[in-house]
Design goal:
heterodimer, A: mainly alpha, 3 helices, elongated, B: four-stranded antiparallel beta sheet
Chain lengths: 66, 530
């Protein structure tokens, strides 16, 4: 992410009143543990996800549900 | 609750998302796919048939059946949250095994099984995970006492996801909440109440059944454990006529409050209560927890009440003090962290800007998109902006909103892409077969606060829980499955051509076969529909 974009998005977060990218409410510490979790999740997602997500969402359309 | 004070019985139903494609990627019709899947289940698992359809009563006390084109599992009735969790995870494991077996069949290209909550395929479906709790009194008599718990428990039971009724990316602790439209009511076509009044006991006349449809499936064992454990305790107290210290309109707008809480990952939003106090979801949960702690040793409470209260308190403290501790533990904090990380690493947009884009896309979709899947891209917007008239006026107004937040129409496509990515991530998280993100995290030791220990799932694949009629039925299912005589089941008994085993008492530990000439099968309220 370029410096300009990063700077702008951080400002957005303040303006919109929403939390910044990695500053989930109270979820800001213990990066090392979380990095491991992110790495496993990202690898798993990449293994499963081939192609566009829009196509996946269409093809995973299911019936029913109550 | 139930026939004896302090003895509780409850169960869960889970609807599974399910798709099958052929070698060339063409989807099988849901009916054809489900028919093949359930046929394979019947071949692989010891069972007796239910009355009609492809209903399979399994030897471990659970029931597998088709429902509107997807498989549904009802766990064995259980007397503790741990035992219920065992039955649930055993069922999930068995269903994944069948999906794997089907995947190897000739002509099958892929099988996908999801423990899903909502469908992001533009049709806005929700999958239920209904809870059943036995009670002594008519649920309508104590429903108002329980609503506050159901509204606020989403801070630890929420599965996390997005509002699938919009094309935006609004994170919700509990996506199911968008599909609820009543506070206390009878579920029917299009009606989903926080506290459902459908009372089908599926047992002898002295029992009632609280049937809750406001919940959703969890991957986290701790979430499921607390969902069942805390709710069972609250219901036990309500059923025992405990004074909850609240007026009937304690929450003045339960549905609006639940929606508000669901959109608040900080758990700080307050709702105005009937006594003019302003309370957060945490405040409301603490009220119920303190009541449960106060009555922990009462005769109507189960032996595991204290254990649940300890975990309940621990989670509330963490939610208040340091929610980061619940990443890798509860579902919604884990998913929220993964979603934020995904945006950070895969998009030029910030997580915060998604709120603005969600509002913009809602307006744009309403004005321009005619088909569920159609997108309006940034080039079209730029072209439309050059025109005059109503459309251009709307877009110019939205442009001013974007300007205010330092955003630009050129990012519209990026937003729509990352929104779809996040929705896929949500579905992949809970995928059961092939193995989804949560299962991979669990295998890698990244999931904390699990409840079950080694061997407990396998144990529940083999046999029903010790307490309750599921064990009696399950053991007979095992014995009779290969009998040359015809037998069938429902929740209240096993029916042979000439004999009948009455399981109308949910707590029965031994039952005697009766000849049908001596006593015809008893009629039970609500049996026909299950």
């Amino acid at each position: 992410m370029s410096k300009d974009i990063k700077q702008r998005t951080e400002t957005d977060d303040i303006k919109t009143g929403a939390p910044a990218d990695d500053a989930a409410p109270g979820l800001t510490d213990t990066r090392t543990e979380m990095d491991r979790l992110f790495a496993v999740a990202a690898k798993s997602f990449e293994t499963m996800s081939a192609g566009s997500s829009q196509e996946f969402l269409k093809s995973s359309r299911q019936t029913g549900g109550q | 609750m139930g026939s004896s004070l302090g003895k509780l019985l409850f169960g869960l139903e889970i609807e599974f998302g399910f798709t099958v494609s052929d070698d060339e990627g063409r989807r099988f019709s849901p009916q054809l796919a489900l028919g093949s899947y359930l046929k394979l289940c019947a071949e692989m698992f010891v069972h007796l048939p239910g009355n009609g359809g492809q209903r399979l009563y399994l030897a471990n006390g659970s029931l597998l059946y088709p429902d509107l084109g997807h498989p549904e599992l009802a766990t064995a009735e259980s007397s503790s949250p741990v035992s219920l969790l065992q039955s649930l995870r055993a069922g999930e494991s068995m269903l994944a095994e069948v999906a794997a077996e089907l995947d190897f069949k000739n002509g099958i290209g892929s099988v996908d099984l999801y423990r899903t909550n909502v469908d992001y395929s533009a049709i806005g479906t929700t999958w239920g995970s209904h809870e059943s709790y036995l009670s002594r009194h008519d649920p309508e008599s104590f429903a108002p006492k329980v609503v506050g718990h159901l509204v606020s428990r989403i801070i630890f039971t929420g599965s996390g996801g997005f509002n699938n009724r919009s094309r935006g990316a609004t994170f919700m602790l509990s996506p199911r909440v968008s599909h609820l439209n009543d506070t206390i009511g009878r579920d029917g076509a299009g009606t989903r109440a926080i506290f459902s009044l459908r009372d089908e006991p599926l047992s002898s006349e002295c029992h009632h059944r609280v049937h809750l449809i406001c919940g959703e499936p969890n991957c986290s064992e701790l979430s499921t454990y607390l969902r069942i454990g805390t709710t069972a305790l609250v219901l036990a107290m309500a059923d025992a006529s405990v004074d909850f210290g609240m007026s009937e309109n304690w929450l003045t707008s339960p549905l609006a409050t639940m929606r508000q809480f669901s959109r608040d990952p900080e758990c700080k939003k307050r709702t105005i209560c009937g006594d003019k106090t302003r309370r957060t979801a945490l405040d409301i949960q603490r009220h119920y927890l303190e009541l449960a702690e106060m009555h922990c040793n009462a005769p109507f409470m189960p032996t595991w009440a204290e254990e649940v209260c300890i975990k309940w308190r621990e989670v509330l403290v963490k939610l208040e003090d340091n929610p980061v501790d619940l990443i890798g533990s509860l579902d919604w904090p884990t998913k929220l962290a993964l979603f934020k990380q995904h945006v950070k690493t895969r998009s030029t947009l910030s997580w915060g800007s998604l709120v603005v884009w969600t509002k913009i896309v809602a307006r744009v979709s309403k004005a321009f998109a005619t088909e569920p899947w159609s997108r309006v891209n940034s080039m079209q917007i730029k072209s439309l902006l050059r025109n005059k008239g109503e459309t251009a006026r709307l877009l110019k107004g939205l442009t001013r909103t974007l300007d205010k937040h330092d955003l630009d129409w050129t990012e519209l496509d990026a937003f729509q892409d990352i929104r779809d990515d996040l929705c896929e991530l949500d579905i992949r998280y809970s995928q059961l077969y092939p193995r989804g993100i949560f299962i991979e995290l669990e295998k890698a030791g990244q999931i904390r606060d699990g409840i079950l220990v080694a061997g407990q799932i396998e144990e529940a694949i083999d046999r029903a829980p010790v307490e309750g009629r599921a064990r009696v039925r399950g053991d007979w299912v095992r014995l009779l499955a290969k009998s040359p005589d015809k037998f069938s089941c429902d929740w209240t008994g096993i029916l042979g051509e000439k004999v009948y085993l009455d399981l109308g008492d949910p707590f029965v530990t031994q039952a005697t076969w009766q000849t049908r000439t001596e006593r015809e099968r008893p009629q039970r309220r609500g049996v026909s529909s299950r």
